[in-house]
């Protein structure tokens, strides 16, 4: 069973940095076999892809809007992924969701329908 729990959201000013964490609190030994990712959903908008990372962190993908500012990483021992967000902008304001793909699905997919497990989300608000 996968139980994803995000933390680290908050209210910051434009230009500030923030680091989100997502830990798998479930009784599972499959964390290191799952592609993990971050999505976000702003008020009134659809959920959108932010970043994804493969099993050992050797490959990652980013949305164009965050590439160069955000960095995704993972610690398989701690069953945790991170999203380091630098140079935050007001348009980064959203609820950020951690997601996990099914074991055996290897692609760094950007379509949210390809992701099977989701956390509850953490709010990030960037003021101008």
The end-to-end span amounts to 40 Å
Radius of gyration: 14 Å
The number of helical segments is 0
How would you describe the shape?
Answer: globular
Low-confidence runs of at least 5 consecutive residues: none
Give a short account of the largest sheet: 7 strands, mixed
Count all strands and give the number. Answer: 11
Query: Helix coverage percent of residues?
Result: under 10%
SSE series: EEEEEEEEEEE
Structural class: mainly beta
What's the quick description here?
This protein is an all-beta fold and 128 residues long. 0% of the residues lie in helices and 45% in strands.
Q: Care to describe what's here?
A:
This protein has 128 residues and is an all-beta fold. It has no helices and eleven strands. The protein has strands at residues 4-7, 10-13, 18-24, 36-41, 48-53, 60-62, 70-75, 80-85, 94-100, 117-118, 122-127. The strands form two sheets. Strands 2, 4, 5, 6, 9, 10 and 11 form a seven-stranded mixed β-sheet that branches. A hairpin with a 6-residue loop joins strand 4 and strand 5. The model has no long low-confidence stretch (mean pLDDT 95).
């Amino acid at each position: 069973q996968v139980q994803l729990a995000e933390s680290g959201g908050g209210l910051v000013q434009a230009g500030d940095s923030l680091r989100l964490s997502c830990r798998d609190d479930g009784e599972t030994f499959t964390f290191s076999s799952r592609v993990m990712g971050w999505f976000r959903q702003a008020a009134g908008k659809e959920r959108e892809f932010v970043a994804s990372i493969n099993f050992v962190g050797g490959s990652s993908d980013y949305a164009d809007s965050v590439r160069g500012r955000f960095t995704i990483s993972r610690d398989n021992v701690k069953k945790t992924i991170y999203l380091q967000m630098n140079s935050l902008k007001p348009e980064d304001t959203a609820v950020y969701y951690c997601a996990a793909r099914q074991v055996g699905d290897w692609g760094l997919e950007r379509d949210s329908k390809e992701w099977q497990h989701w956390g509850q989300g953490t709010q990030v608000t960037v003021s101008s």
